[in-house]
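Review this fold:
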Amino acid sequence: MEKNNLNTYQAAIYLRLSREDGDAGEGAKTVSNSISNQKALIMDFLKSHAEIEIHSVYADDGYSGVSFERPNFQRMLEDIRKGIVNCVIVKDLSRFGRNYIEAGRYIEKIFPMLGVRFIAVTDCYDSLKKDNGSEMVVPFKNLINDAYSRDISIKIRSNLEIKRRKGDYTGAFLAYGYLKSEEDKNRIVVDGYAAEVVKDIFRMKLSGMGQQAIADRLNRQGILSPLAYKGSIGIRLKTSFGTGEGAGWNYVSVTRILKNEIYTGVLVQGRHTTPNYKVKSRVEKPEAEWVRIKDNHEAIISPKEFALVQGLLKMDTRRPPAGEKVYPLAGVLFCGDCMESMVRKTVPSGGKQYVYYVCSGNKKQNENCSTHSISEKELVPAVLEAVRFQINSVLGIGEAMAILDDVQWKDTGAAKYEERIKREKEKKDRTEKRKMGLYEDFRDGLLTRQEYLQMKQEYDCQIRASEDALRSCGHELQLLKEDRGSRQEWIAEFKKYENITVLDRNAVAALVRQVRVYEGKRIEVIFNFQEEMDRYNILAGSGNGCTGRKVV
């Protein structure tokens, strides 16, 4: 039974609007559901209800009706529990909520138990004056509102998926380095200032610096963090890069930039979803279901640089004490006998510092490995010599393959495919012309209906066969072209370092996959692009010993 102290009710006016529920958008419905319109309608209703006094207005603008975990709704509940409010007024049942079960629980159980009068103005529902008709109408309308919310949720999901497939940006926050286009808000464009900072971050990582060292340098240089920068250009949004007002660069913010594929021009969206329209907690989707659009926008970092950095991030690259850069061979140096990492040790002697690399397997009680070591003074020059030898060998392969390419492209391989494509196109054109002439022959009485249909079927088969042959030859020709292009690409990578005199982090990251040190100080260097080198060494017949590995 509702309380009625001196025939006066202390009322809470509850207002709600949500774009997610389809309440906010365009047209007459938006105007009707606006917060101000809801309040105006309720105030007009109260003119004829002197027994109701307004205690407070509670408005949740931008909150879905599916969940009742809304800040001002919860504040209203607190006032109800304190006995301050004993009447709740809404414009209609959909403003109260769109969850059939939860809305029913409040209206039919919780509010009556707490002695609260509930009024939905445009639905003509008043719990003080309810009858058998309203008892049936309220659950039915709540069910409709719930179904409406489910339908809107499905439409929003479908619309977002379509936009993602088109390459439209649907995220709430933009990655540092990009802005929304002024011409098309669904597209993103490079932010010149921030893009230069992103490039510097990748350059510093490739030079051997760790993420914290990069963050420290950016802070010393007075470079605004992503959060602070967004605020400085008028974007007052909390981003995933910041940890609070005035937050500077840190390990996490630098790492997120280094791992974000968006900087290569690839837009990856749809990584998370919600189980259904009532549960808002996000769960990660399988990677196969992510929407990945290549060449979607202008890249800031080349795919090659990005791939190199991802390789560095996977390595064990602890930096030296009080130093910014990691050691050149950090993360790629292993014991060749037990494949455990080699640990760098500094030994002071006679006022000097001597550096050695020691197998860590023995420390881990690996009985199959001894405590063998090698000095940095021996190791680094040996690896440098192996790198220089490999560069010369690869460039030799490049010269040999260039000569072969000129011959093979004209006389074999690609030339044959090009010739066959030309013949098949001519054949297909002739068949299509003959097929077009069939109907005229049939119309002029030169062919019977059966002859016409039989010959048309034969020509259709010939055309399909030509189309299959064209697809097959085109595919093979494309593979040959891609093969030639990829070879030029990895050979060019070695050529960049043809004048190398010092072993630095950049060269190691680009060219070296692994360095192995065996008992007796035998060193094996395994290079990147090993499979490509082995294949083309055979094709070129260079005999220069370039096998993707070098033992010194």
Q: What stands out?
A: The chain has 16 helices and 18 strands. The domain at 9-162 is CATH 3.40.50.1390 (Rossmann fold). The chain has three domains: 9-162, 178-314, 328-425+474-552.
